[in-house]
């Protein structure tokens, strides 16, 4: 079973003089010598270094106190999530799954071997509590693929203790800089090893440059969403907070982009991709929609006085939520490993590498992007105004929901266009976000009422009172009416703000 740890550390260039005296660092009462560890790590990647390209590292290491398989994902500056699995001859299946979105069908091969002599010190406070671990590593790197070389260097690492204050690393760095120690130019041992042991003839990385044409802006947005889907895959597998929602949003942004810019990207090519993105978003939504509904209904139930709660409503709601979550999650993990999902990722890569550009793609971005955003806004306007003409009821509910979906598309189109169009696109984005939020509240109420009717029927069949479900249903209906009452004012404000891009 793999364990996850948040690792916060900084790397420095180390000279032959070794570790400076760190007893003067504020908060440090003692520097404890923990001896020298001998570490032997083999790093794995695809032949074209897909993991390294996104700063993900996968290694099998022996020696030291944490021998085993280590998979590291970047989180932010100086911060990574390290997932550790016990030592074995082959890559554990759980870790293989976490890199599948990047690796796909490519083989993971031994890429680099790093042997390190690690001289370790613990910085502790007056009560003997660990503040940080400091090590001086003498590293021997060897490229394991054909044509590679070897390298050797010495570096210093300062790793914050679990639960420590990251500001402590600033104090240590201040002392190190005074002693002439400078931050490392390389973000990791592997990155430095790859650079220093690379074959002489190495293909340079592609240079994208600044967006110039309409296509440049649209494709830049497409790349960001593709990258988000790939990067979020491991977080979804680990059931990280908000990961499913974030991946679903990325799929929607991509699909909307293909539909919003048909004069730039040929829909004969992008429509089948959009269909697959719709499928993926639907699978992601099975769990997410229930999660949102469960939170909404639980909060609503908490507001009901105890004397109006008839029967085991809370228990039934929790049981429904838990059962649905486990069922949906098992299905979702299967989807992420499916040939269909991996083929979608390959298709997105191919589309970005060889985009189906049309005539407008090569034009300056202003007019084509503005025309696309304005077209999406006009669709929103027609749907909102139709909804406002209808009486409250199911037909109006459907019209409001359709307007919400189109508001999302206009918002995403404005996001893609904002770097080129500036303030007008930003205004459109802000307006569509406000509209989407209001209409989303209405749709959540519609779905909550549907769920309450279903739960009520189950409770009634079990001989339980349906009174509380009816009470919650009535409250949800009133919430929907309030959002409908707010819509005319918000829409009038939006129409007064947006005169077209």
UniProtKB/TrEMBL annotation:
What Pfam families would the database entry show?
A: CHAD (PF05235), CYTH (PF01928)
Chain ranges of the CYTH domain: 5-200
The molecule here is called CYTH and CHAD domain-containing protein
InterPro entries recorded: CHAD_dom (IPR007899), CHAD_dom_sf (IPR038186), CYTH-like_dom_sf (IPR033469), CYTH_domain (IPR023577)
Composition bias, Basic and acidic residues: 1-14
Q: Which SMART domains match?
A: CHAD (SM00880), CYTH (SM01118)
Which superkingdom heads the taxonomic lineage of this protein's source? Bacteria
The segment annotated Disordered runs over 1-20, 179-210
Specify the CHAD domain's residue ranges. 211-499
């Amino acid at each position: 079973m793999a364990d996850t740890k948040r690792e916060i550390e900084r790397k420095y260039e180390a000279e032959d003089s070794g570790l400076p005296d760190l007893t003067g660092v504020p908060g440090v009462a003692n520097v404890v010598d923990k001896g020298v560890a001998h570490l032997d790590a083999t790093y794995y990647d695809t032949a074209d270094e897909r993991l390294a390209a996104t700063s993900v590292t996968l290694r099998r290491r022996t020696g030291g106190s944490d021998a085993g398989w280590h998979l590291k994902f970047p989180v932010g500056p100086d911060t990574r999530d390290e997932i550790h699995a016990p030592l074995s001859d082959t890559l554990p299946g759980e870790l293989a799954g976490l890199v599948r979105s990047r690796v796909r069908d490519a083989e993971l091969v031994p890429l680099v071997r790093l042997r390190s002599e690690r001289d370790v010190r613990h910085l502790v406070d007056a009560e003997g509590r660990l503040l940080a671990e400091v090590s001086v590593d003498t590293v021997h790197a060897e490229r394991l693929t054909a044509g590679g070389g070897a390298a050797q260097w010495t570096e210093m690492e300062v790793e914050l203790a679990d639960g420590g204050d990251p500001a402590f690393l600033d104090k240590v760095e201040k002392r190190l800089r005074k002693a002439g120690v400078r931050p490392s130019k390389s973000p990791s041992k592997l990155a430095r090893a790859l650079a220093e042991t690379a074959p002489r003839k190495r293909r340079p990385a592609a240079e994208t440059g600044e967006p110039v044409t309409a296509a440049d802006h649209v494709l830049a947005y497409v790349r960001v969403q593709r990258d988000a889907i790939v990067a979020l895959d491991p977080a979804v597998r680990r059931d990280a907070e908000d990961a499913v929602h974030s991946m679903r949003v990325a799929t929607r942004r991509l699909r909307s982009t293909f539909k919003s810019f048909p004069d730039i990207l040929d829909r004969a090519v992008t429509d089948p991709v959009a269909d697959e993105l719709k499928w993926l978003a639907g699978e992601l939504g099975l769990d997410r929609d229930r999660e949102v509904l469960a939170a909404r209904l639980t909060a609503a139930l908490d507001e009901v006085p105890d004397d109006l709660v008839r029967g085991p409503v809370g228990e039934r709601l929790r049981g429904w939520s838990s059962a649905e979550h486990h069922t949906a999650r098992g299905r979702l993990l299967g989807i992420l490993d499916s040939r269909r999902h991996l083929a979608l990722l390959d298709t997105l890569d191919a589309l970005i590498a060889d985009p189906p550009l049309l005539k407008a793609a090569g034009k300056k971005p202003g007019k084509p992007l503005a025309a696309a955003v304005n077209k999406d806004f006009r669709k929103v306007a027609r749907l909102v105004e139709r909804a406002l003409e209808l009486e409250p009821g199911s037909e109006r509910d459907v019209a409001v929901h359709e307007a919400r979906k189109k508001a999302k598309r206009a918002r995403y189109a404005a996001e893609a266009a904002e770097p080129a169009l500036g303030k007008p696109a930003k205004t459109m984005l802000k307006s569509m976000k406000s509209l989407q939020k209001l209409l989303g509240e209405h749709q959540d109420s519609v779905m909550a009422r549907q769920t309450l009717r279903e739960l009520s029927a189950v409770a009634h069949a079990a001989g339980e009172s349906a009174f509380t479900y009816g009470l919650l249903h009535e409250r949800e209906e009133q919430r929907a009416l309030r959002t409908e009452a707010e819509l005319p004012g918000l829409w009038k404000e939006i129409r007064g703000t947006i005169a077209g891009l």
